[in-house]
Amino acid sequence: MATHTLAKLLQDTPFFGGINDVMVQFILDRSNKIQRQTDEYFFREKELGDSMFLLISGSVKVVKFWHGNNYTLNTLFAGDCFGEMTIIEHNSRSASVLAMERCIALEISNQTFMELYHQDIKQFALLQMNMGREISRRLRSVNERLFQHYIRDNVATHHQQHFS
Fold this sequence. Notes:
The protein is an alpha+beta fold. It has one domain (3-163): Jelly Rolls. Helix content is 47%, strand content 27%.
């Protein structure tokens, strides 16, 4: 993929929207393109991580392992970012990410974010605010799904108690 196309893809994500061209190029110059084949992991739950990814092509599923089974939490496609939680909280991976087909992704290391911080604090702050907003949006979506499950379970229980 041409550098200008990759730069546009990066700037079109919620995480990197509004980042200026100079800093986008700064990030691209310090990032690596990696490939995964079908059923190959980008990373596994509980591994230590120090990078996030921008999916350039292909699709992945985000999975949690429980009682011997993988459960899909989400499916991501070209233009989606994943792995950012380890950048923010410096903790192990909360889920695994598995390629559903041949994938190419841009790997952006924590070191790149630290260099960006030293290079341009305003752009770094914008990036951090973008990440915070996107994670907040995702949390709001999960909260809504949890609430819907709660309501559905409690309404069903309530109806069973009254009609039993």
